[in-house]
Amino acid sequence: DQQVKQNSPSLSVQEGRISILNCDYTNSMFDYFLWYKKYPAEGPTFLISISSIKDKNEDGRFTVFLNKSAKHLSLHIVPSQPGDSAVYFCAARVMYNNNDMRFGAGTRLTVKP
Amino acid sequence: DAGVTQSPTHLIKTRGQHVTLRCSPISGHKSVSWYQQVLGQGPQFIFQYYEKEERGRGNFPDRFSARQFPNYSSELNVNALLLGDSALYLCASSLYPGSYNEQFFGPGTRLTVL
Does the pLDDT value for residue A12 go beyond 70? Predict the structure, then answer.
């Protein structure tokens, strides 16, 4: 029962270009969405989040877009840098349940110099 | 300041054995959550503890148990290990439950069950 899906296991982008990572969800009961970044041998690190009442949130080079009607979330990184190379996880919190968070399987981003 | 620490980093066990994994949260953090990440999948929620009480439990069998100590460190115990328990076990701490934008993960414990 995978309710948060990241259908692209990997993505390769040239330095300076835009990286777009996608995430789809099937449960309308999610009220908060997050992106995490994970480097090898480290735990995931919180990157950016968005509430279900918004459609966009921006933090520096990172922007998250939420399309509720399509149940689709995307993370844009502009411009991409080699240090952005990592695995990115999309996660969603079940409404009114602080301890129930569902993760996607992750997308490995490689930014080439 | 030390981040979330977990021990051991790697562990090899055989089927049927018992394992205890340990987690020390960031100083001042009172909430600890445990996740299981099987290879090729995202983390899956196992337990959340806050102020030494269980606040949530994911869809895991009773072989999995946890506790939180007065210093807010935590242990995850798994009994009667199965091959399918092989995974990276992540611990995360935050000030309060649900503070996901301020939740910090440890590097994990890699458990291999043979």
Answer: yes
